[in-house]
Please model this.
Amino acid sequence: MKFELKNILKQISFNTFIPFFYPMMMLPLRSWRRKAIAMLRFQPGDRVIVPGVGSGYDLSYIPRGVSVDGVDISEVMLAIARNRIRHNTKSITLHIMDAENMDFPPNTFDKAILDLFITCVADPQKAFSEIVRVLKPEGEILIYDHLIRVPAWADSFMAGIDLVMKYNFCTVIRSFDEVIKGQPVTVTKEIKGDPLGFIKGFLLRKTA
Model:
C-alpha cells in the first residue's frame, strides 16, 4: 500500500511514540466514547467501517452480530489491535489502508465509526467523502471528536490555521460544518463527549 507524503509523516508518528501515549490519553474518555458509540442503532448483520481504528480501542464497544472492518495507516497500531482481538469471537478484519483512498466499493457499509479520526487525517473533507461513498443510503455515521461549530465567516480563518497544523499528530481547530459541507448527510443527534464539552459526539445519516 503506497501512501502520499502527507500520510507518511503521520505514519511515522503513529508507528513510533503514539502507541505508548495513546492508552494513557484515551483512558479518561472511555465512558464518553462508549456512550457516543451507543448512539448507533446496530442491527444483526450490519457491516461497520472504522477508519483510523488504531490500536482497536473501540472494538470492544461494538456488539456481537455485526462484522467490522478496521482501517489504519500504521502497522504498529494495527499489530496492537490484532493482539487486542486475538481471543475475540467477533467478526473483525483489519486492513493497512489509507482512509482517504479506500479500496472498498460504494454502498458497502451500514455504519461508520469515526472516533478521534477527523482531526488526525491530513485531508478531513476527502476522508469524510470516502466514508460517505462506501456507506449505504440511510447508513449511520458516528463522529466523536474535538470538532468546533463556528459561524460560516470563521471557516476560512480556521482552514488557514489548519493548513499549518494538519501535518502534526492532530489538530484541534477543525470546523465540523466545513468537514461535512456538500455531503449528502444530515445530523440527527449531538451530545457532549467529555466533562467540559470540548469533544462532541455527532450522529449523522446518509440521505438516500
